[in-house]
Amino acid sequence: MNGVKIELDAQELGEILGIPATGFDIYVREDKFVLGKARLVELAQKLSQQSGLEHPVAVKKGDMLLLGPYLTIF
């Protein structure tokens, strides 16, 4: 702010804004290993539709495929 670097965690920002922030810091973490390796592999398999993955990998938004049946409402 005005050339001064300010760092806030989710809890501090929530207090300033007057909104609940419980769990937000985990949701936006760059280190997704808090979910555990097995869950990360499962998510990568589903998002990329590559069932043979054995290690967690990053899946870019443009590479994601539609998941299963979907419903179109007109």
Task: Provide tags for this entry.
about 30% helix; about 0% strand; about 70 residues; 3 helices
Can you give a write-up of this model?
This protein is mostly helical. It has 2 domains: 1-30, no CATH class; 31-62, no CATH class. The chain contains 3 helices and no strands. It starts with 9 loop residues before the first helix and ends in a 26-residue tail after the last helix.
Number of domains: 2
Helix-strand pattern: HHH
Class of secondary structure makeup: mainly alpha
Rounded to the nearest angstrom, the radius of gyration is 18 Å
Strand content: under 5%
End-to-end C-alpha gap: 46 Å
In total, the number of strands is: 0
What's the quick description here?
This protein has helices at residues 10-17, 24-27, 37-48. With 74 residues, it is mostly helical. It folds into 2 domains: 1-30, no CATH class; 31-62, no CATH class.
